[in-house]
Design brief:
Layout (H helix, E strand, L loop, with lengths): L2 E6 L2 E6 L9 E3 L1 H11 L1 H21 L5 E19 L8 E23 L3 H68 L4 H36 L7 E3 L14 H11 L1 H21 L5 E14 L2 E13 L7 H68 L4 H35 L4
Parallel strand pairs: 3-6
Antiparallel strand pairs: 1-2, 4-5, 5-7, 7-8
Helix pairs in contact: 1-3, 2-3, 3-4, 3-6, 3-8, 5-7, 6-7, 7-8
Length: 437
């Protein structure tokens, strides 16, 4: 493996050929990075916890529909004041005597109660809570799609940096070969000293290019760690990502849009929010009507534990708020307005989906065309460099022509790398626009 040491601003950089992998470094694949992000990303963990909160709230809303059973036991000791009034014989003012005593009282009971009917108030709240849970599940899925897109984008950026590092390494090797060749010509007296000075300058520039490529590669891996949601070093390498063709990427835009409408989790989340709001409105309307409840209970009470007497009761109660200051009417009004706002938000998001799909589809097509053009440019630039090297060796070319040819090849190779990973990123964005993770 080829290694190059550079001293720059007092810092030593160690650059290796990007075409080889350090034997002590592990290689991170795209699939593995996606698994890590799905398991460890803090945003996804927070979203999963919020889904658990919504599930608990749905069960809380269901609880009033189930029978309520309670038990109670009590002990009491209290005074009993007895007052006796006696009139003296032959008349006069009555006399009063007071006796103060205390006694025990024990009580234990078991009661059960349940809602019989409340015109859909409680059932509506439960159904609304379940719809909110489904909305949160879609929100969690939407976040997973976003995290997957961010991860893919970061991975492709790191892979592109790795490929650009390889281009910089190849450029340095070419400049090193040119320097040795030109130095031989100058020492033989067939080339002027200015050619050697130019070759040394080109070699130094290639060193700087490789240093910057190494820094960019390490930085891209740090950003990839962030996209995975983990804290770790950058002592690993990036594997070449697989080519992932998106199903239907060359198809009709309307077909892609229809598929996106059916799968986009953000749209599904809004639809479930609208459903929840409509159910809440229906539940609030039940406040205009009474509610019917039933309860029953058994009791044991008495002055001593071994002297208790049992009792039973049953009760039906009808509660009806005849007038509450218009609060129910205003709550219904508020709920209807919230539903209208959610519907407008849904329509706006639907329009955004169309734009997202169209932009991503066009980006894929443009990237495909750019790859072909960039590849042709790289092939021609390599032919130009070979011709320039031959002309220089034959003595009919000059060092400027040779240097320009090398710069053109480096630029063309870099453009080909960028075009390749621009296509990968465009496909990742199309996956996101389609709501696929």
């Amino acid at each position: 493996m080829r290694r190059a040491l550079f001293l720059f601003a007092g810092i030593t950089f160690v650059a290796t050929s990007a075409g080889a992998v350090e034997p002590d470094k592990r290689v991170l694949t795209l699939d593995e990075a996606l698994r890590i992000a799905r398991a460890s990303h803090p945003q996804l963990q927070a979203s999963r916890a919020q889904t658990e909160v919504s599930a608990a709230k749905a069960n809380e809303a269901k609880a009033p529909l189930l029978p309520q059973v309670a038990g109670n036991a009590s002990y009491q000791r209290a005074t009993r004041n007895a007052t006796t009034t006696a009139a003296p014989v032959g008349g006069g003012t009555p006399t009063t005597s007071t006796g103060v005593s205390s006694s025990n009282f024990y009580s234990a009971g078991l009661s059960a109660s349940g809602l019989l009917y409340d015109f859909g108030q409680t059932t509506g709240k439960w159904q609304a809570a379940k719809a909110s849970l489904r909305s949160q599940e879609q929100t969690e899925r939407n976040l997973a799609v976003q995290v997957a897109f961010n991860l893919r984008s970061a991975y492709y950026a790191a892979a592109a940096s790795r490929a650009l590092h390889k281009v910089a390494d190849e450029t340095l090797r070419n400049q090193e070969a040119h320097l040795r060749q030109i130095q031989g010509f100058v020492e033989a007296g067939t080339r002027p000293e200015i050619d050697l000075a130019q070759a040394r300058t080109d070699y130094a520039n290639a060193q700087v290019l490789l240093i910057n490529a190494e820094v960019a590669y390490q930085t891209s891996k740090a950003l990839l760690n962030q996209a995975m949601g983990i804290e770790r070093g950058t002592d690993y390498d990036i594997a070449d990502p697989p080519v992932q063709v998106v199903e239907g990427e060359d198809g009709d835009a309307e077909d892609l849009f229809a598929n996106a409408l059916a799968t986009r989790p953000d749209l599904q989340a809004l639809a479930r929010q609208i459903e929840a709001q409509e159910l809440s409105t229906r539940a609030l309307k039940g406040g205009y009507a009474p509610s019917l409840n039933a309860s029953t209970g058994l009791t044991e009470s008495g002055p001593a534990v071994d002297n208790l007497h049992w009792g039973w009761y049953g009760k039906l109660s009808l509660n009806w708020q005849i007038y509450g200051g218009g609060i129910t009417e205003q709550q219904v009004r508020e709920a209807r307005a919230s539903t209208a706002a959610l519907r407008a938000q849904y329509d706006l998001q639907r329009q955004q989906v169309r734009v997202d799909v169209e932009q991503a589809r066009l980006a894929v097509h443009a990237a495909k065309a750019a790859i072909s053009a960039a590849h042709q440019a790289a092939v021609n630039a390599r032919v130009r460099l070979n011709l320039a090297e031959g002309r220089y060796q034959a003595g009919v070319g000059n060092v400027i022509e040779l240097g320009d040819s090398q710069v053109a090849l480096t630029s063309a190779a870099s453009q080909e790398v960028q075009a390749t990973y621009n296509l990968a990123t465009a496909r990742a964005r199309l996956l996101q626009a389609m709501g696929r993770s």
